[in-house]
Structure formats: C-alpha cells, structure tokens
C-alpha cells in the first residue's frame, strides 16, 4: 500500500491525511476550519480567495442554514479548486499573538 498518495474528500475535494478517513474540514462551528483565517489574513499569510475556498469546503460539510444561492456559489468554488492543497491556519496561540 502506498501511503504517499493522498485521497480526496468526496464532499469537498480537499486532500485527506493518509492516516485518516475523516476530512479535516468536517468540523462543527466550535472548531470551524476558518477560525484562524482572519489572523492569518491580517498577517498576509492567507489571501481572501484562499479563505473563500476554506469557507466553501467547510460549507460542503455543514450546509444546514445556508441558502441555495450561497451553496451553489460555494460548490462552484469547491469544484474549481478540487484536489488543490490549501494551507490552513488554525486558531493557535501562535496565531492569536499575530492579531495583537
Ligand atoms: Zn471534506
């Protein structure tokens, strides 16, 4: 078995860790994958387009409460960037200090 080949999440198209069956974007609101984005954008680590991709991938896992129009927009973003690696910036102590 070749563990170097990353599999893609069938819902959002992100690369999955080879040792996990659970997509890293499959999170509830309390641990949303977007929590560290604003600090990362303020520091110039993350562009707005990259943030939109993170939001869109998360929306594929948590579509409840989103309007049809928003969902279609997010789905288009996800399909356009299908399989593309996206660096993430979790809300870490390190990231929190960046906002101060
Ligand atoms: Zn996913």
Quick overview:
The chain is mainly alpha-helical.
Helix content: 25-40%
Number of helices: 4
Largest sheet: 2 strands, antiparallel
- The portion of residues forming beta strands comes to under 5%
The whole-number mean of residue pLDDT values reads 87
How far is it from the N-terminal to the C-terminal residue, by CA?
Answer: 46 Å
The rounded Rg comes to 14 Å
Count of folded domains: 1
Low-pLDDT stretches are none
Task: Spell out the helices and strands N to C.
Answer: EEHHHH
Adjacency order of strands in the biggest sheet? 1-2
Give the overall form: globular
What structural category arises from helix and sheet content?
mainly alpha
Bound small molecules, deduplicated: zinc ion
- DSSP, total strands: 2
Topology of helices and strands:
Elements: E1 7-8, E2 15-16, H1 37-42, H2 48-61, H3 68-80, H4 93-98
Antiparallel strand pairs: 1-2
Bound molecules: zinc ion.
Zinc ion binds at residues 9, 11-12, 14, 23, 25-26, 57, 61.
Structural overview:
With 100 residues, the protein is mainly alpha-helical. It has one domain. 39% of the residues lie in helices and 4% in strands. It has 4 helices and 2 strands, in the order ββαααα. It has helices spanning 37-42, 48-61, 68-80, 93-98, and strands at residues 7-8, 15-16. Strands 1-2 form a two-stranded antiparallel sheet. Zinc ion binds at residues 9, 11-12, 14, 23, 25-26, 57, 61.
